[in-house]
C-alpha cells in the first residue's frame, strides 16, 4: 500500500501541536535524528518536516498529499487547496498594527501609507475591499521593527498574544482574519491515498470531539432525575444507574466544555450531588 505523505511545520508551536494530534490518533513518528522525512510505525504515513510557507506549493505539486498548516498561510498562498478539517489549535490573527503614537480612526487612515508585511496577497485583498491604496513592502521576518527604522508607517503580521506588538510600541488597529491549524489536502490526491486520509480524518474528529467534551458523573435523588436529565444534553440520553442507597441514582453523561459551568450550576440547583467531571481522550460516535 502507498503511504500518505503529510507535511508539518519543521519547528515551533504548530509543529509541537501537530505531532501531538498525530500521536493521539495512533500515528507514531520516531524522528530522533531530526530527519526531513520519517515514517510512522504500523500505519501507512510518512511525515515531511517543511517550512510553513513552502507547504502550499508542495501540496499543489503533489509532493505531499496532506498537511497540517496554518489557515493564514493557505489564504495567502494556497489558492485551490481544500481544507478537510479545522483542528482548533495554534490560533492566531492576521492584523494591521500602527505605532502607538499614530492617531488612528479608521481604515481610511492607511490610504497612501507604507505597510510592511509577509502577507502581501492577504493585505492587498483587504485594502482593495475597503477601497484603500497603500504601498506594500514585503518582508520575511521581523516585520514589527519596520516602523521603528522608518521603513513603513504600519505593519501587517500574525498576532497571538500581542506581546511582540507591545514590545515594539505598536497597537493593533485592524483584524484581517482569524486563523487556526487545519488539515489541508492536495488537489491531486489519488483514490488510494484518499482512503488513508479518510481514516486519518475520522480519528482526528474523534480526538477533537473528546477535547471539546467532558464526562460527568453525579448522584441524584430519584424524584429529581427527570429535572437533571433535562439539563444534560448527552449523546443520545444520559445513563441512569441505581445506587446502593434507596431512592438515589447515579447519572452519567457528556457535556460540552464550553457550557461546563452553566450546566454545573443548573445541576446543583436541581439537586445533583457528588459531581465528578473527567476529561475524554477520544469520542467515537
Can you walk me through this structure?
A seven-stranded mixed beta sheet has the order 2-3-4-1-5-12-6. A five-stranded mixed beta sheet has the order 9-8-10-7-11. The chain contains eight helices and 16 strands. The longest helix is centred in the last third of the chain and has 21 residues, at 191-211. The chain is α+β, with helices and mostly antiparallel strands and 285 residues long.
Give me some keywords for this one.
flat, five-stranded mixed sheet, seven-stranded mixed sheet, 285 residues, alpha+beta, 28% helix
What is the end-to-end distance? Answer: 28 Å
Spatial strand order of the main sheet: 2-3-4-1-5-12-6
What is the chains' assembly state? Answer: single chain
Order of helical and strand elements: EHEEEHEHEEEHEEHEEHEHEEHE
* Count of strand segments: 16
The helix content is 25-40%
> What average pLDDT do the residues reach?
92
Q: Counting H and I runs of at least 4 residues, what is the number of helices?
A: 8
Report Rg.
Answer: 24 Å
Which spans of ≥5 residues are poorly predicted at pLDDT below 50? none
Structural class: alpha+beta
- Taken from the alpha-carbon principal axes, the silhouette is flat
Provide a brief overview of the structure:
With 285 residues, this protein is an alpha+beta fold.
Outline the secondary-structure elements:
Elements: E1 4-9, H1 13-24, E2 28-29, E3 37-41, E4 45-50, H2 55-61, E5 66-70, H3 71-77, E6 82-86, E7 92-99, E8 114-117, H4 120-129, E9 135-138, E10 154-159, H5 163-167, E11 170-179, E12 181-185, H6 191-211, E13 213-221, H7 225-231, E14 239-242, E15 248-256, H8 260-269, E16 273-279
Parallel strand pairs: 1-4, 1-5, 8-9, 8-10
Antiparallel strand pairs: 2-3, 3-4, 5-12, 6-12, 7-10, 7-11, 13-15, 13-16, 14-15
